[in-house]
Design a protein that fits this description.
By secondary structure, the chain is mainly α. The protein starts with a helix and ends with a helix. It is rod-shaped and about 175 Å long.
């Protein structure tokens, strides 16, 4: 292609064609057709080279995009994600139920603590009255004394 284009740009024997023009017009026309066809061939060859370069670029782009697509998650990943989301919803529901149950139990524990405190105060009050009554009985019946004879047993029990 390069040789043909150089031949067309710099014809060597220009005078030879002029001699042919007068002596043999058919051959001259054929030579002109050959030159025209050579010019067209050169132009088409250049087009083909350009198109080949474009095709190579497009193929590179295609391969890059194909590799990118190969790295993208497929339908099985989407299905697995769906399963995980369903599990998450179920666990969230269970967690909320357990949290409300925990709140209920905490309220119940607080009620029991309050009840224990109330009963402890009531027990202390009953003990206090009981020991007070025993002391009054002891003071009233001083001559009898305590069961062990020391008079200290009720005081020790009242402190416990």
């Amino acid at each position: 292609v390069k040789a043909l284009s150089e031949e067309l740009e710099n014809p060597m024997n220009v005078h030879r064609w002029r001699k042919l023009e007068g002596s043999d017009p058919g051959t001259y026309e054929m030579i002109q057709k050959i030159q025209t066809l050579q010019k067209r061939l050169i132009a088409k060859t250049e087009e083909v080279v350009e198109k080949d370069l474009l095709i190579q670029e497009k193929e590179k782009l295609y391969v890059e995009l194909k590799n990118i697509l190969a790295r993208q998650p497929g339908p099985e990943v989407a299905e697995q994600l769906s399963v995980y989301q369903q599990n998450l919803r179920e666990k969230t529901r269970q967690m909320k139920a357990m949290a409300s149950e925990l709140n209920m139990y905490q309220a119940q524990v607080n009620e029991y603590k309050y009840e224990i405190e109330r009963l402890t105060r009531e027990l202390q009050e009953v003990k206090r009255r009981y020991y007070e009554q025993k002391r009054k009985e002891q003071l009233g019946g001083r001559g009898e004394g305590s069961a062990d004879g020391s008079g200290k047993s009720l005081k020790l029990q009242a402190n416990s």
